[in-house]
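Q: How would the structure tokens look for this protein?
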Amino acid sequence: MKRKKLFVAGLLIAAFTIFTTTLSAQSYKTAFGVRLGYENGLTLKHFMAPSSAAEFLLSVSPRHFHITGMYEYQQPVPDAPGLDWYVGIGAHIGSIYYKKEEYKSAFLVGADLIGGLEYTFPRAPFCVSLDWKPAFNFSNDYNDYWYSGFALSLRYTFR
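A: Here is the predicted structure in token form.
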């Protein structure tokens, strides 16, 4: 319940920031920051071309460890300077400890999809994104990511 409240608060802050900040187009080459959601972690996004980016996620908690790599296609939202939409595909590897009372854990290998919105601040070296990243595990039947793939990412940009 606490994570749900934090997630909703993050959404409200992001929406307020997006709609009250003076918008102008500004791009970056690389960005590094945190990803906040069901799976918290670190995020690194690097543009290889104006509309092609690679994003890497490292997610660690007492229950799981994941490394994810994704290719993303990103385009500006018409008539909304600084706001972009993106979609992508990737893969992950990791482990998860579930069913604590039965000491069950699982090795995870699978595919990821991602789709979301990203806003780059015009006068500050930051960007914020909100996305949904469902994941599909091939190595076992542990797949609870349909509801848990939503996250808010806050990154420092290097132009």
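The chain has one domain: 2-158.

Residues 57 and 92 are 9 Å apart (CA to CA).

Upvote if useful.
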